[in-house]
Amino acid sequence: MSKATTKTPDAPVLRFPNFSEPWSKSHLKDLVEQDRKITYGIVQPGKFVDDGIPLVRGGDYSSGWAPIDQIKMVTKEVDAPYKRSKLAPGDLLMTIVGANTGTVAVVPEWLAGANITQTTARISIDKSKAVPGFIEQALKSPLGSREVRKYIKGAAQPGLNLSDVERFSIPTTSRGEQEKISSFLRVIDDKINLARRQRELIELYKKSCLQNMFRQELRLKDQSGKEFPAWEKKRLSDLVCRVRRKNDCSDDNVLTISAQSGLVSQMDYFNHSVSAKDLSGYYRLLRGEFAYNKSYSRGYPLGAIKRLNEYESGVVSTLYICFSAANSEMSNFLEWLFESQILNRELARITQEGARNHGLLNMAIDDFFGLPVSIPSKPERLAIVEFLNAIQRRLELADSELSFAVTFKQGLLQSMFV
User: Fold this and answer.
1) Could you give all domains of the chain from N- to C-terminal order, each with its CATH number?
2) Using one digit for the tens of pLDDT, what is the confidence trace for 250-267?
3) How far is 390 from 380, CA to CA, in rounded Å?
4) pLDDT tens per residue across span 46-67
5) Which of 200, 260, 334, 400 is 20 to 30 A from residue 237's alpha carbon, by CA?
6) For the stretch 188-207, what's the b/e string if a residue is b when 16 or more beta carbons lie within 10 angstroms of its beta carbon?
7) DSSP reduced 3-state for 181
8) What is the C-alpha separation between 323 and 330, in angstroms, rounded?
């Protein structure tokens, strides 16, 4: 690739060699097949079936294509009236309703004959006018995002009208340059999708190990290959001490529990504090101590227990149950035990009917600290923590590799489209 010799409004910053002609702009409606206008699909799919016509929804392609066995199906009777929105390989799909409005994907060969919902638009590019893969990348670029923002309507339920999608201003260049850009960026997309899939597989492996280890269905062995001793039954109160340390107003780092990120600062998470102005009644946590948020969060139906790892200290609402482990070794083990959610059955048992305000689960403090916990010997605890930490490091590396690939792609899109 080479930099354009002069940066003009009709030439991108980054181009392949031997391409120097100016770019032009077209409305998207002028680039589609005349007998397959931009359209949406099935309005009321009804009940899904095990054997029928695949019905593509936005979530099926928002992070790379879902496997075919995860795509819902509708009956032939439901599909029949919507022949206009049937898919062909190479068609473009765009989400036109919801949080992911503007997300774009190319229909693969294995989805030929599938249909779409009314929240998705099918865009059939006329191959004599443009290369579908090039238009896909243009719509994914910052230029495409600007077009989405220009026409998007609604706040609670954002969306695009088909007439507005037709008006999108799309760059075009020679067919040769379109094909070159499309092929190059498709390779980058394939690498991103591979990195995303590898990250998902590591995450699945981690969850499987967590569940099986703490159910004692998967046991490690000591260095000589022998089995570790049987696990002992304890009460949570035997392993931790409740923390009721009140803030003296010197600490204004208000924490909240994020299911994915753990105990994080509200300023970092929300970009503002949602706490009370007077923090003197809050509990003050120190690094390595735990807090239990007794309310549902995504992936944690009976609340999340997280350890403070990111800051030396912070304060939390007294609605949280706070505690600390006897030592760092036990703390490291308990962090993984809580992440496994092996205590969910016992938490459900001590939860009373109904809920208090704030949507919190209704349970007694003494019942919480009286939860039964199975604990292995110290050597096995150390081995489990080391094993799971190794998986976590690999997961973090996969996150970093994926993030780099996505950022690299965004930089290319910024420089290759005008």
Assistant:
1) 24-172 (3.90.220.20), 175-227+377-418 (1.10.287), 232-375 (3.90.220.20)
2) 778 889 888 777 898 887
3) 15
4) 899 999 999 999 999 988 898 9
5) 260
6) bbeebeebbeebeebeeebe
7) helix
8) 13
